[in-house]
Design a protein that fits this description.
The protein has 388 residues and is α/β, with parallel strands linked by helices. The protein has a seven-stranded mixed β-sheet with strand order 1-7-6-5-4-2-3, with helices on both faces. It has a four-stranded antiparallel β-sheet with strand order 8-9-13-10.
């Protein structure tokens, strides 16, 4: 049903069952936090939805709070933690490859309120070394924030090991799980982390809905003040239609995750095999093994090619959509991937890199067509550059 789409890390198609339950919910108008009989029925739906999401994360429903998405969840976890230390602002540790909703939030708090931030850089393979986190911990470190899997390279970060260290030192640990939830099995209680952010549209749910896992509500603070929704922790009438969609997506993921992951891994291995047999001169950016990267992502450098031109040509000629490591805006300002920069790649290498991400609707035939298109378009572009 989806053809030529290789940008699943940006967003995923809504599944048929998710769309169906959302349609069935659209007429349930009553405020779930109201006190009439219509509201009570919707409150039951809300509670069951929270249970479905909690089951996917391996935790209790009371520890799940719905948000507008991953960015709000990241903001909430960080700001709530730092609010506890406003009178004695200390030290924050994060990595240089985080999502902007993490990077810009900690930078803002450093500039406005006097917190100090250490940005830990990854190794050339995209993984952050545990020792590099440990060596930056100070007596006044108050928060560590790190993503579970990187959105551009797919490299899985050592969050379980970091969690053991932060727990021993009584430091709050926030994990941005947006790119891993719905792709790999995650049990937040076993991980031992304090917060985990997730987003519905990354695993076939609707946009505008996500959530935050909170291990211990003590000391936690609301981000949005107002009414008593979300157990008194997030004001605003609940978006029941989106929550039901997220719930169905979580239910589907919980039931099919192992099968989806195996399918993605088969696609990834096939893609790597075909690339190795092709005439394309390429290199993978970041780790690619099953144990250290999610199964649906590859970041590929094609020396000499311009990724912008390559992506445009592949879409025009073959209908294939990929993401790129750099872009030029209308005012000619260069925007390079901060992730690839942090890995030590040169501007020229970043400009020649594409991200390929796929999912449950991708077939091996799609992978074959992708490689054929990549080979043809790369050859065409390199010939043009030689003539020029």
């Amino acid at each position: 049903m989806i053809s030529g789409y290789f940008d699943y890390n940006a967003t995923t198609p809504v599944s048929d069952d998710v769309a169906q339950v959302m349609k069935e919910t659209i007429d349930l108008f009553a405020n779930p936090s109201g006190i009439n009989r219509y509201s009570a029925a919707n409150k039951d739906i809300l509670n069951r939805s929270r249970e479905n999401v909690a089951r996917l994360l391996g935790t209790e429903a009371a520890k799940i709070f719905f948000t507008s998405g991953g960015s709000e969840a990241n903001n909430w976890a960080i700001k709530s933690t730092l609010l506890q230390h406003f009178k004695t602002p200390g030290h924050i540790i994060t990595t240089a490859i985080e999502h902007p909703s993490v990077l810009n939030t900690v930078k803002y708090y450093a500039e406005k309120f006097g917190f100090e931030v250490t940005f830990v850089f990854p190794q050339a393979n995209g993984a952050v070394a545990i020792d590099d986190i440990v060596s930056t911990i100070r007596p006044d470190t108050q928060l560590v924030s790190m993503m579970h899997a990187n959105n551009e390279t797919g490299v899985i970060q050592p969050v379980e090991a970091i969690a053991q260290i932060t727990r021993q030192r009584n430091i709050k640990f926030h994990v941005d799980g947006v790119q891993v939830i719905g792709k790999r099995r995650v049990n937040v209680e076993k991980l031992g982390i304090d917060y985990l952010s997730f987003s519905g549209h990354k695993f076939h749910g609707p946009k505008g809905i996500g959530g935050l896992y909170v291990r211990d509500i003590e000391g936690f603070s609301p981000l949005i003040h107002g009414g008593g929704q979300e157990m008194g922790w997030r004001a605003g009438t609940e978006n029941l239609v989106a929550i039901v969609g997220l719930s169905k997506a979580a239910e589907e993921a919980d039931s099919n995750l192992d099968q989806w992951d195996a399918h993605n891994w088969e696609c990834k291995r096939y893609l790597m095999k075909l690339l190795n047999k092709s005439r394309i001169n390429f290199r993978f950016n970041g780790l690619t093994e099953y144990e250290n990267s999610i199964s649906n992502t590859l970041n590929i450098l094609i020396p000499g090619a311009r990724a912008e031109a390559l992506a445009a040509l592949m879409e025009v000629k073959s209908g294939i959509i990929v993401s790129i490591g750099s872009a030029c805006s209308n005012n000619k300002t260069k925007k390079l991937s901060h992730v690839l920069e942090a890995m030590g790649m040169s501007e020229r290498e970043i400009q020649g890199s594409i991200r390929v991400s796929f999912g449950r609707f991708t077939t091996l035939d799609d992978i074959q067509k992708f490689v054929q298109s990549l080979e043809s378009c790369t050859s065409q572009l390199l010939e043009i550059s030689l003539v020029a």
